[in-house]
Specification:
There is one protein chain. By secondary structure, the chain is an alpha/beta fold. The chain has 19 helices and eleven strands. The strands form three sheets. It has a five-stranded parallel sheet. Strands 8-9-10-11 form a four-stranded mixed sheet, sandwiched between helices. The mean pLDDT is 95.
C-alpha cells in the first residue's frame, strides 16, 4: 500500500529537522498504539537524509551495541570503536559526532530499555543536557507501549521528563483517507464496504494495508481474510494488550470483554465480574492505557454519575466481540462457523459503528464545539444518538442514525427533541436529521 496522509505530521518533523540541523539538537517523541504507522512516518520524513535507525530489541545491552555499531558505520560512513559495550558510551559517541556533522538518530521501541537497563534513561538525560546546545542531532524517539512512553517523558519523577521538544501522538487514518484508499483499491465499493473497513480496522494503517495488499475490501472478503487459519488478526488484540498490561492482564481483559458486549456502567461491569471492585482498573484503562473513554450525556457536568464506558479503539472492540468471545470456535478451527456468526451479526454490530463514524465525520468538519449523545438516567426511553452543538451561538444538530432510512421514525425523534429542548437546550435552534449508510 502506498503512503497516505500524515501531511501535518510530516511538515512538523521537517520543521524540527531543519531546526536541529541549522541550530542545535532537538528531541521529538512519536507515540501511538502498535500498527499505527510510527516507523513508516519517521522513515518517510528522513528520506534522502543522513539517518541512523536503531531498533531496541529485547536483548542484552552489549548485544544491542554490537548490532548497532555496524548500522551506524554504514549509515554515516564513520568509524565506531568495536569496544563500545554500553548504550551510554554509544549515545555519547553519537552526540559528539553530531557536533561536527548533522544527522538524524531514530531510536525505535525506546521503552524496551526498561527491560534491558533502566539507567539508560538517566545516562541519556545527562549526555543530552551536556551536548544538546553544541551539537546538531535530530533525535526521534518512538515507542508503541503507550503507558511506558507516557511514563518516560511525562511523569515528573522520570529523568527524561521535560526533555522532549515535541511529542507527536499518531492517530488512525481520518475518514477522508479511508475513502481515498477505497477509491484507489476498490473503485466499485459501496458504503457498507467503507463502514466495514472502518468497523474492522478503526482506520489503523497496518490493518488497512493488510486488506489492501490482499485485495480484500468487500465485507465478505474482509471477513474471510480475517477469519481463517494463521490469520494475522487472530491473536493481535491479545498480543497488543498483554504488552501494555503485563502479567496482570486477566482483570483488564474481563472488563474490556464486558464493555464490548454492551455492559458499560461501573455497577453492571462489577456485577458481571462477580461484584469485584474495578474503580482503579477503569481509571488506569482511561488515563494510563488510553484504551477506554468515559462517556457522559452531552453538557453533563464533569462529576456527573451518569457515566458509560466505551472502548475507543474500533479494532479492539471488534476483536473482543468476535475473536475473544468465540475463542472456542477458533480452537477447533471452525472458521466457517465464526464467519457465519460475524456475517449474520454484522448489520446489528455495524449500527453502533455507523453512529461513531458520523460523530467522527462531524468532528472532522471542524464546525462544532461539542459532539456527543444524550440520555437520561435509568428508566427513561429518551436517548438520542448524536447531539452536536455548532460553533454559532445556540445552534445544534440532532441526528438519529439508522443503517436504512426506511427504519427512521421522524415523529419519535421529534418527541425526543422536544424533551431535550425542554431539559437542556431551551434557547437553541435545533436541526433534526436522519443519517444512514447513504450519507457516508
Amino acid at each position: 500500500m502506498k503512503f497516505y496522509n500524515r501531511t501535518n505530521e510530516l511538515a512538523e518533523l521537517q520543521r524540527i529537522q531543519n531546526l536541529s540541523f541549522n541550530d542545535y539538537s532537538r528531541l521529538t517523541v512519536v507515540t501511538g498504539r502498535r500498527r499505527i504507522g510510527k516507523t513508516s512516518l519517521i522513515m518517510k520524513s528522513v528520506e534522502g537524509l543522513p539517518t541512523v535507525y536503531l531498533f531496541v530489541g529485547r536483548k542484552s545491552e552489549a548485544t544491542l551495541c554490537s548490532e548497532f555499531i555496524p548500522v551506524i558505520t554504514q549509515s554515516l560512513d564513520v568509524f565506531v570503536p568495536n569496544e563500545i559495550r554500553t548504550f551510554r558510551s554509544l549515545f555519547q559517541y553519537l552526540m559528539e559526532l553530531a557536533s561536527n556533522k548533522p544527522f538524524t538518530l531514530v531510536i525505535d521501541e525506546f521503552q524496551e530499555f526498561y527491560n534491558i537497563n533502566e539507567s539508560v534513561y538517566s545516562d541519556m538525560q545527562n549526555i543530552w543536557d551536556t551536548y544538546r546546545k553544541k551539537s546538531r542531532m535530530n533525535l526521534i524517539i518512538s515507542g508503541s507501549i503507550y503507558s511506558l512512553m507516557q511514563k518516560i517523558f511525562q511523569h515528573s519523577k522520570e529523568p527524561l521528563f521535560g526533555r522532549a521538544d515535541n511529542i507527536i501522538k499518531l492517530s488512525a487514518f481520518n475518514l477522508a483517507t479511508l475513502k481515498e484508499i477505497m477509491h484507489d483499491y476498490r473503485p466499485q465499493f459501496v458504503n457498507d464496504d467503507l463502514l466495514a473497513l472502518y468497523s474492522f480496522t478503526g482506520g489503523v494503517p497496518k490493518y488497512v494495508e493488510l486488506f489492501c495488499d490482499n485485495s480484500a475490501l468487500s465485507i465478505d472478503e474482509m471477513i474471510s481474510f480475517m477469519i481463517r487459519e494463521n490469520s494475522p488478526f487472530t491473536d493481535e488484540g491479545k498480543n497488543l494488550l498483554i504488552e501494555e498490561f503485563g502479567k496482570n492482564y486477566a482483570i483488564y481483559f474481563s472488563i474490556l470483554s464486558a464493555i464490548s458486549g454492551g455492559i458499560n456502567t461501573q455497577p453492571e461491569i462489577e456485577s458481571a465480574l462477580g461484584d469485584k471492585s474495578i474503580g482503579g482498573q477503569l481509571k488506569r484503562l482511561i488515563e494510563d492505557y488510553n484504551i477506554i473513554t468515559r462517556q457522559r450525556p452531552i453538557l453533563a457536568k464533569e462529576g456527573s454519575q451518569t457515566v458509560r464506558y466505551e472502548i475507543q479503539d474500533s479494532f479492539i472492540r471488534f476483536w473482543f466481540n468476535y475473536f475473544d468471545r468465540h475463542r472456542s470456535l477458533i480452537e477447533i478451527k471452525n472458521f466457517v462457523g465464526l464467519q457465519s456468526i460475524i456475517k449474520s451479526n454484522y448489520p446489528t454490530y455495524s449500527g453502533k459503528l455507523l453512529e461513531l463514524y458520523f460523530k467522527q465525520q462531524f468532528a472532522e468538519s471542524f464546525q462544532y464545539r461539542a459532539i456527543g449523545s444524550w440520555w437520561e438516567p435509568k428508566g427513561s426511553q429518551n436517548e438520542i444518538d448524536i447531539v452536536a452543538l455548532r460553533l454559532e451561538k445556540n445552534q445544534a444538530v440532532v441526528a438519529e442514525v439508522k443503517r436504512q432510512k426506511k427504519n427512521f421514525k421522524p415523529e419519535l425523534l421529534a418527541a425526543k427533541v422536544e424533551h431535550l429542548k425542554y431539559k437542556l437546550l431551551p434557547k437553541y435552534h435545533i436541526k433534526t436529521i436522519c443519517l444512514s449508510l447513504e450519507d457516508m
